[in-house]
Amino acid sequence: MAASVYCGGKVLRTFARSCKAKNVNNVFLRCASTSQTRNTPKGAKASGRTGRNIVLVEGVRTPFLMSGTSYANLLPHDVQRGALEGLVSRTGISKDAVDHIVIGTVIQEVKTSNIAREAALSAGFSDKIPCHTVTMACISSNQAITSAVGLIASGQCDTVVAGGVEFMSDVPIRLSRPLRKTLLSLNKAKTLGARLGLLAKIRPSFLNPELPAVAEFSTGETMGHSGDRLAAAFGVSRQEQDEYALRSHTLAHTAASAGKLEDVLAFKVPGKAETVTADNGIRVSTLQQMAKLKPAFVKPHGTVTAANASFLTDGGSACLIMSEDKAVEMGFKPKAYLREFVYTSQDPKDQLLLGPAYATPKLLDKAGLKMEDIDVFEYHEAFAGQILANLKALDSDFFAQNYMGRSSKFGAPPMEKLNTWGGSLSIGHPFGATGVRLVTTAANRLLKEGGKYGLVAACAAGGLGHGIIVERYPS
Fold this sequence. Notes:
Its main location: mitochondrion. A hairpin with a 2-residue loop joins strand 1 (2-7) and strand 2. It is globular, with a radius of gyration of 24 Å. Helix 4 packs across helix 15, helix 7 (223-233) packs across helix 12 (384-394) and helix 11 (355-367) crosses helix 12 (384-394). With 475 residues, the chain is α+β, with helices and mostly antiparallel strands. The strands form three sheets. Strands 3, 4, 5, 6, 7, 10, 11, 12, 13 and 14 form a ten-stranded mixed sheet that branches. The chain has 15 helices and 14 strands.
């Protein structure tokens, strides 16, 4: 048998016809360990274990806009094209120098089922570049990033563009199932009599459309209801949620005003004279104004409102991920290493939005790091109640002992390190695009603040979660 391993950027071929798989793996890991010595600090492990350091060169996004505003007349691939073109413009990479493109999205536009391919072609990338689309609810572009890491770690690629897009201004609305079945049968009918007979079966109730809902298929519960129940379970008050939401909007406004949200592109809206340059959902209110809003989901006693929940958002993102050797060879200065990552999964009813609480300890244990080693935390904010429930879960002995198999609480991130440039509550949350924003923001914060390690974590529908370690690239 033959095993090929990457070590210092060169391929070593080891032939061991009669060796056991365990011995080959030992050779593999020794080579990987040797090649990581220069760039991997003690305790931090490189993703993939192949010895290839994998780097984030740059990440960008279109402005995240409230649905129904400036992007309303576009198609999703138009928005993703803007992110891809912006990444090329920002980095200067040739459009035929990319080995693979992977894009995340949640609500598919049926005309562009493989939106990665359609966006790449419309952005002018070579038609020789394979493209595929992934979906994993709100962590779809997180999955795009780790898919890119896997392609590079395995030696299949050196240069991958990962991204994501969501377009809530025009979601698919289906005809009712009885009407769909009738129309399909009508298309197959061979005689006028057969067609008239089918048309006679149509009832007024058939004309009721199936409207999309952000709901769990397995439970039938909307995510807002889940957020309300989670907040109640962890004793998160309405005032705490409003205060956290106000914090998010205030920090985002401050960061945007200071020019820190440098991942945002200027996007010329196709078909309009308008060029969008900033997110439009950041609105600093007051606690008094927020307190006037009524519950949005659980009425009349719920605590989730329009002010402390993320809003329906249109937007696209893209990032350039490379092997370190290739990035250096091409003259790029990376922003960060992409290190260990994990995915988690739990009960989609009672623990739907607890991804960060489960992912954070698992990820830090895997990376050999401690909470105090992390300088920057970027947690996805679906609802203020959700993020606060995750923090309380991490700081709970009961939760640790009964749900995480730990002897005591792991501890929550300090607020002075968490989402200090705002988050999804204020900046917006295009489902498929948020992961790239989180990872890019973590890298940019490390560079601005001089930190070493960042931790990104997010929850997603289906009870899913994700976490990844980002390490600042050395000067």
